[in-house]
Each structure stands twice: as C-alpha cells, then as structure tokens.
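Researcher: Here's the sequence for the chain we discussed earlier.
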Amino acid sequence: MNASRVLALLVAVAPGVVAAQTPQDTVTLAPVTVTATRLPVSRSAAPAAITVITGAQLRARGITRLADALRDVPGAAVVQSGSFGAQTGLFLRGGESDYTKVLVDGVPLNDAGGSIDLAHVSVDDVDRIEIVRGPASVLWGSDAMTGVIQIFTRRSAESRFRMSARGGTYATRDAAGDVTLARGAMQVSAAGAAHGTDGVLDFNNAYRNRHASASLRLEPGERRALRAMVRHTDATYHYPTDFLGAPVDRDQYRREKRLVAGVDASTPLSASTTLRVMVGANELDGISDNQVDRPGDIAYHDETEASRRVVDGRLDVTLPIDGTFTAGADWTRQRETNTSNFEASRINRGYYLQLLAGNGVPWLVTLGTRVDDNEKFGRFTTWRASGSWSFRTDTRIRATVGTAFKEPAFAEVFNTSFTRGNASLQPERSRSVEVSVEQELLTEGSTIAVTWFDQRFRDRVDFIPFPPDSAVFGTFTNIGEAVASGVEIEARVVTSSGLGLVTSYAYLETEITEDPFERIGQRLLRRPMHSAAATASYVIDGGSVAATVHRVGSRHDVGYVRLPWYTTFDLSGELRILRRSAADLALTLRLENALDEEYEAILNYRAPGRTVLVGGRVDFAW
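Model: Thanks. This is the structure I predict for it:
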C-alpha cells in the first residue's frame, strides 16, 4: 500500500481522534492553556487557535526533537536542510522562519531578531508544548509575528525515575533519563539525554546532541509559587555540503552550546491582586569552522557569542465582573559578539496591558495593547482584540485581529564574514485577522474546527545577493510587502476504546505585493500551498501503536525551482513486558519515513530515508 492510500485510509476512518496519552507516563493534564493570554484559560474557551502536545504523546510516538513534534501542527511548514542536525526552520502560517517566538518556561529561546535553529531543541524533558497561531507581540514582544511556541518542562506530582535507550539506522544511538523527587509542595527534577548519528551522507555528516536540565518547583499555597529551571545543550553538526548542496568538504562543522535559565515567582498582594516576576537568560556560544582540505577550498573560523537577558513583572487584578486586568513591563538586553566582525548590544523596554473578561461560558473577550521602546529602532505600538462565544448547539466561534512586529537580527545590521550589514534596517510589521468555527462532536473532547486567516507583512527584511566575484555573498534590505492567507481544518474525536486518530489540513496562499526587484505576484519560498497530516493510535494495557502520515504539497525554492509533493509515513509502538503498580518496562519501536520516500525539503539537500529505531524504556515511581 503506497503512502497516498495510507493517508486516504486514515482520513476516512474518522473525522479525527486525539492520539491517546499513555496513562502511566504522567499526571493527567488540566485542560487549560496559558500562552495565548498569559492567564490560565480553558482550552475550549481560548480565543485563539491553539495546539497542545503533551510529553506523554511525544514519548509514546518516540519523538525527541521539537521539529518533528511541530510537523503535526496545521499551517506549520518544518523545513530541514538535509540530515539529522541540519539547519531547521519553521514557516508558520506563511510567515518567515524568524516570525515565531519559542519559549522554555517563559524564557525566550530565539536569538536577537527572532532566528532559531530548531534542529537542536530536544523535547526529552517536556511536560507539554503549547503552540499559538496568530500575532502575539502584544504580550510577548518582538519575534511573535505569526505565533508563539512555549515548552513547559517536566512536571510530576510523584517521585519517579525514567530511563530509555534505542539505536538503529544511520548508526543512530539515543539515550535519555530523568528523576523527580516530590515531597509535599516541593518538586525537584533532573534530566539528561544524548543523541548521535553518522548522518545520511557518505562522509562528514555526523551529528551529536547532549542535553541536560534541572528544575525546582515550590508551591506552598494558592497563588504562591517559585519555579526555577536550567537547560544546557551542546550540539555539533558536521556537513560536507557547499552552498549548492554538493558533498565536497571533509572537515566543515557547526557547534552550538546554549544555556537557558529562568526563575518565575508569584505571590498574592491582596485578595484580588497577584504579583508575578520572571527573570531569564539565554546564552549561546557558536562556532562555524572549515579548514582547507581540497583545491579551491576556502578556510574560515567564525565564533559568535550571544546573550538575551529578560526581566518581566506584572500585576494580575481580579475584577468583580468575572475578569482579570493585567498590567506588566519587561526589560530585555540583547548582546552579540562576532569575533571576526562586530560587538553590539541593545535594550528594549516593553509595557503591556490586557483586559480579559468572561470565563468562556458562554463568552470570553480579551483586549490588549503594548508599547515597545527600543534604543536602536524607536517606539512601536501593537494591539490585539480577541474573543470566543459558545452556543447551545455546542458550537464555538473565535475571532482575533491584531498587529505585531520583529526587530532585525544583529547579523543583518552589522557586517559578518559572509554578508554586509545594513544599519538603516527597520523592524518588520504585520497585521492579522482570523475567524474560527469549532463544533463539538458526539463524544466528549471530540471537535472539528475550521479557521480562516489573513495576514499582511510590511517592511520585510530580505537577503539581496551580490555578484559572484564579490568579497561577500550579499546584504539585507527592507523590500516591501507580502500577504499570507489560508484555511486550516483540524478534527479530533476521543473514544473510550483506546483507538484514536487526529487529522488536519492547511491551505495557504502567499504573494509578494510590493517589491523593488520585479517579484510582485510571486509566492513566498518554501511555503507549500497544501499540507495534511493524520495520526492513528491504539492504546491498551499491554502496549500502544501509532501511525502518522504527512503529505506536503509542492513549493518554490531558491531560483523559483518548484519542488514536488512528498509523503512520509511514520510508525511507532510499545510492548510492555513488565507492569507492576510502581514499575513499568517496555520495548519500543519507531520507523521514520517507513516507505523510504525520496524527497528534498530544501533544494539539493536529500532528506533521511527509512530509519528504524529499536529500544526500551523503564519507568519507576515511589
């Protein structure tokens, strides 16, 4: 059976079913989200398009990378330039790859200007991931142009120990473990993971990623909490390819060390007022290196040190009209040093207000505004209005309209070893509107939702190449405007039998509407017009199995080369060989691209073929 027929079969089985959680893997998740409003809101009442992926679902499917988890999200185009560990970006709802803000327990993971390489973001220690689609600068500032992804690290109400290991194709070897000590109001956790592979190419394609994290949670009373976390990642990717994708170099590599840390505290000031303060840091040490190993080779050694320090404080005031008023301010200092070219820093001060009224039964409305005062780019105001309303027919309508902005990256403003900076760049801006209709189906938690959105991007920053004989590759400029609009369909049904399926489809139209380089009317690169996903799962006491199909439509790449459709089929399963009241031992299997589809997510960069991973896990609680 080919992949197209598998996809058709999965879509036909049911309108959609949530992939069931593995019951013993984590405490039951409360049906609330916080990323869209920065306040706990029922998932069903949230006034935004939100996808929640639990750590239990990821572990049941054998997913260890954030990029792989995001492939299931409607409107999310994940693009990886070749083998495991290669540069990986996300185009959410047609926006650029630096238009989505990624947070870990509230601490921004993006570099200054929004860029982020998703290849190295592990989800081994994740409790859940919340993905908000749509503008969110009003609460999260720069970078949140088309959405926000927030990773919440592992949380457990009981003391437990977990360990897993697996290996397989491409000399892949993965190992992960974590331990949690829970005593009353205190929880202390530590986790570590190691991932390695020789890669898909014949030489110089190895990848390794070492990850460690720790967290502390104290919750002595209602509205009183202290949470601290630290995560360290050390990743090295070897790549033999030149800028055309040809494998020619035997010693070229990129190494990144990243440290993310944060402390989040809340305390009541009165019966109706809560103070919350978050302090966070994101530190990056990156090295790109190549030495001459063949005729015509060009040697380079480029080191970058970057940091992002954030202090955020806010007051949440409960109102007598079933609402909450939020007033907050944040201070962000960004610094970047390129050892060969520049050293620069900038400070941004943000001030935000939000009124949340209603509890979702039947309505909930938010109104918010934010002023950012950037010492390099001046003052910017963003705003957002959103709401949801339920009807007696179990139908809920959501609507959002708002604006967002993104400041340029340091490497776009200053000269680097490969590009010429443009000091006159202005921040990019957007305006977005969306409307969604969600209908509950026959069983509890079962829904089908259709969302229409329209976005306008202006002052877009784009790369302008120089002639081949130039000393650098090119520069950057604000080139004009573009639009991205489309429809997202997401369906899910929950059953008591353990059988599940979730399906989604996204249609996307993009167009350059203003451009000085005669590209008006052309589509934006690497955004497929059509994409679909379907995941079927079955969970019983003795184990679980899940099958996922991704269908990605044709899209244009550099030079407006059209890349063809491709379909991937993944299969995962667990077989429990020991299950006691406090212990669980299981064998695991994961097949990625099981039908060995040959495709290129990016022009000239071959994606991994069939990958078989076999292993086991142990889970012990006390």
